[in-house]
Amino acid sequence: MSGGLLVAGTTSDAGKSVVTAGICRWLTRKGVSVAPFKAQNMSLNSFVTREGAEIGRAQAMQAQAARVEPTALMNPVLLKPGGDRTSQVVLMGRPVGEMSARGYHGGRQAALLDTVVGCLEELRGTYDAVICEGAGSPAEINLRRTDIVNMGIARAARFPVLVVGDIDRGGVFASFFGTTALLSAADQELVAGYLVNKFRGDVSLLEPGLDMLLGLTGRRTYGVLPFQHGLGIDEEDGLRVSLRGAVRESVVAPPVGDDVLRVAVCAVPLMSNFTDVDALAAEPGVVVRFVDRAEELVDADLVVVPGTRGTVRALRWLRERGLADALARRAAEGRPVLGICGGFQVLGEHIEDDVESREGSVDGLGLLPVRVRFAREKTLARPVGEALGEPVEGYEIHHGVAEVGGGEAFLDGCRVGEVWGTHWHGSLESDGFRRRFLAEVARAAGRRFVPAPDTSFAALREEQLDLLGDLIEEHADTDALLALIEHGAPAGLPFIPPGAPS
């Protein structure tokens, strides 16, 4: 076969990322070579490919679902918000500058269409199928002229479009109809039909509505996916603890030892790659919660200060909320603190930043003997090393260059007492190292916590990806999906004028 599909959504967070991953895993299990693709992603959760390119974590996850190595071709444009109105533009895995939303949509975005189409065509020449993920909604009519990620790329590639709707939010029929009706006639020609996501209850009660939707739009529904608890897959920016987790606080599997271990993650502004703590939440007996008040650190056995796209802004936030003082007290008392990337930087003594915040010299929290200077060139790397006697792999994404002036070496960062800091994202996914680290935390916290000897984060992630493939295989019309991917949208789909039906 040779073909493709664009998975669009009625809204952001409708389930495009997980549906795309599920389709990739389902096709891969059928022996189809498949690649994911997202022309433009806006996310603070990113990943470094083996060739040193930065792409969205969702596309890296989808590549894993397809059992292929992620590359910059799969996410040629990544926007990393630095505030309400500006974002860093990452093109083909490398940052090319900061831009306002008006500046980007006013001209730069349309100029990138040739680049993203070229990437898509290269993938099409390599794989049997390419499953594209849209962004937001294809019916953002104010942005259609410069769109390169929804109907713009679908039109350029002549890909059929499957629109996903989250029925758990309510209003899914109106969302399907309205999304279609707001599109131009040429765009509507490619909208093949719909996929209902996160349904709870008896599907037979939904079927009359699906029949009415078919009558109103001339487009069928390709499946109804049930609400699935405990899905833990890297998406764009949803605040959750994945694998064994839930929003805000993880659900704990029974501990191996006598105690649980409580982990508090400071929910700093512009928090990035907070997926680092997913591996902690996957451990039986570990509770992970995101916090924004000093009193929430009192009963924590470990506090994590995660990555951030705004290091100086996060530092100010920690001070304003009393969290900085709480962290200092923990350090003085010998209670564990872990800083990752931007979180590592704020734990240092001094920050010189003329790049990210442009605030110049700023005092850090002084918990680690580290001085940070922000460089204009971004560090993108896939380091491999050892810590606590165990092999560790990670990835680095940062402008801050750390000069370590003392302490015990730790993953290119340092450790002083029970305060640890590193630029390495993803290090906690290394099973042996994670267990040794948690044993150290438990010792310092006085907890009778025992890390599970056989937890494999990679295996848990594979289970989740297989579960997504199962959802597609069991609850979607896979024969019809396969025909759609191979042959495109059915001919003669009716045009729905805005305002219909009468």
UniProtKB/TrEMBL annotation:
Gene3D superfamilies tied to this protein: 3.40.50.880, P-loop containing nucleotide triphosphate hydrolases
Domain named CobB/CobQ-like glutamine amidotransferase: residues: 262-431
Presence of keyword rRNA processing: no
Name listed for the protein in its UniProt record: Cobyric acid synthase
Organism, as annotated: Streptomyces alfalfae
Function per UniProt: Catalyzes amidations at positions B, D, E, and G on adenosylcobyrinic A,C-diamide. NH(2) groups are provided by glutamine, and one molecule of ATP is hydrogenolyzed for each amidation.
Gene it is expressed from: cobQ
Annotated keywords: Cobalamin biosynthesis, Glutamine amidotransferase
Active site: 341 (nucleophile), 425
